[in-house]
Specification:
It contains five helices and two strands, in the order ααββααα. The termini are far apart. It is mostly helical. A hairpin with a 2-residue loop joins strand 1 and strand 2. The chain has one domain. Helices cover about 70% and strands about 5% of the residues. The radius of gyration is 15 Å and the shape is globular.
Amino acid sequence: MGLTSYDLWSIGHFSMGIVSYYLLKKMNVETVENFVISNGIHLIIEFIEKSSVNGKVLESFENHVADVVLFLIGWFISMNIKSENLIPNALVPFLWSVLVFTTLKEILQELYPTYKTLINRMWILLLILTPIFLQ
């Protein structure tokens, strides 16, 4: 969420594009279906994101567009470098956790924008603790 075209979360959108292609490919989802599922879910989340709350602008139109484009670029790069052959299988459970927690974080921030800081802190904590529970 940002007022400029690109912000810190832009890296996250790019990364999640890479991860989403990889995880669905590991589940033997064909490329076209992978594209539709990955980018479709991301696009829906971007459409439902609130751009303002109580008159305060949270995210610009340009930032929404950049988020979608960067996710798409990450997805295409992951497909073209055949990330399913480069990323070790041992990372699959952790990457699923990252993808699920990040998606939930995005949805929760839309439902409860006043708790954004708390939601972000919980998300970071979950990401830190996940490897411990996956051992």
